[in-house]
Structures are given as structure tokens and as C-alpha cells.
Amino acid sequence: MEFNKKLQELRKQKGLTQEELSEKLYVSRTAISKWESGRGYPNIESLKAIAKLFSVTVDELLSTDEMLTIAEEDSKRKEKNFCDVIYGLLDICIAMLLFLPFFAEDADGIIRSVSLIALGSVQNYLKIAYLVVVIAMIVMGVITLALQNIQTTAWVKSKTTISLILGSTLVMLLMISSQPYATVFAFVLLAIKTFLLIKRQ
User: N or C terminus: which one in the chain shows less Cβ crowding within 10 Å?
Assistant: First the structure.
């Protein structure tokens, strides 16, 4: 018997509705409905909770093929979460431009290194552009880490794209304004993100 049928049978034997089962497992009723209709499988933690609730083993709940499918899905989910954490941290790392001397400033014919905050020799519009993109990247990093477990289609598709667009914009802005150290730093972070994206596909 397949997992979805076993789950329905065990739930009915215990006299539980889908809503009641979802409350006991701390998942949504939609998740229970999805599992029972055979449109998906729970993660490993939910499987353990189901097995414990119905006093059965995980092996009794799943066939070998189902176990392999769940293991693969769980592995992909962990890899995706790891990539999200790396993306978020890399976006937050761009904050170092605010405080570390990555920018070159001409002071009476002497070139000195300064941080973005201390940068004074560039036009105001350029400094504002730097700050807007850097702050947007930091905010994006924080949001990516905070919403790591959100799986809405729009968010999953857009978070990586937004991060890459912001990173590319910053690299282009720094290149155009001849800031080599800051450009290399931003480019390395962008290259790591691009490598992760290619590896994940």
C-alpha cells in the first residue's frame, strides 16, 4: 500500500480529520491533503512525527521507492536552504564596503584608500548610487535569511534574480567610476553567487 493510502487509513482509524491531524503534526491542512492525495511527501521530520503519532515505524509507512523519493527531496531541500544562507550572507557581506577602505580618493594629488562612508571626493549622485545599491543588497540578504523557509513561487523565483541584478549593478557602477578594489570585491561575491546558481541547476 502506498504512503498516501496508509496515511488516510491510519488517520481514519484514529478518528481524526485532516484539520485535527495537521494540528497534531504542526503542519497546514493543505499539506495533509497533498500527502493524502499522493501529490507529495512529508519531509523526514514530519515522517518521524507521523510514525510516532500512529505508533508505527517509518519503514511501515513507506515503500523503498517512496523512501528514496523522500530522501532525494530532502537532500534537494537542504541544498536549496544552504544556497539561500550563502546568498543571504554574501549580500550582507557587501556591508564591508561601508566600513573598509576599498575606495580610492584623490586628496591633493595623493591617492588614499577610504571606506564608502568616508568617501568625499566623488560627486554626490555617485555616492548616493553606491549607498542605494549597497543598502538594497544588505536588505535583500537579511530578507533572504529571514524568509528562508518561505516557498511561494514568486519569492522562490525572484530572490536569486534580484540578488544577481543588484550584484551586477554594483559591479558595473564601480567599474564605470574606476574603483578597482571595490570592483574586485563586489565581483568576487557576484562570481560566488553565479557559481552556486550554475551548480544548483
Answer: C
